[in-house]
Write the structure tokens for this entry.
Amino acid sequence: MNLVGVHKGPAYLEGLVQKISDGQAHEVEWRGKLQTREGHDQFHIFYYGDLTEDDLITWHDSTPLIVYAEHTVTGDRYLLIDAAKHGYDAMLCETYPEEDLNNRPLRPYLDVEGEDIFEVQLSAYYNVPWDEEFGEDVDEDGNYELITGESMDFQQVKRDGYDAFAISIVNRKGVVTEIVQEELA
């Protein structure tokens, strides 16, 4: 288990998420609610990928999905997940053609009720024992080399190298829809 991830969640979401501690989380799960520093918690969702009959966003063929939340007032976009960058597989096992990654046009997400403004809840799962499996590969500066050749702080690797990720949205009527369920290891 990766306690750094469970306690802190993804590093790239720091400052944008309120941790949820409601007792329903698994021991390897981090849960959070997207919320700006100003307290704004309503967002539009934009994504690249395919939509299943169950309203899940999935990869398009072999091109990784990407999901953003957009502030409904300012239009600022916040990356929720890029399956080409985040998660165990993307950091240690898989690389993707640059032309595919640069050609991922975003589409707005509408739920089954036609709603387009949502509260966003995130879950990341940390089953990988990073210290035990990869700690000896950390350099003297505390960095770890990813499959892409990029060097990253090992603490960030442990936070962004989750093995599963989920996104649920809640529309203004209180209807909950799970839109991402990614197995990333």
In short: The mean pLDDT is 94. The first helix runs from residue 3 to 8. Residues 105 and 153 are 30 Å apart (CA to CA). The chain has five helices and 13 strands.
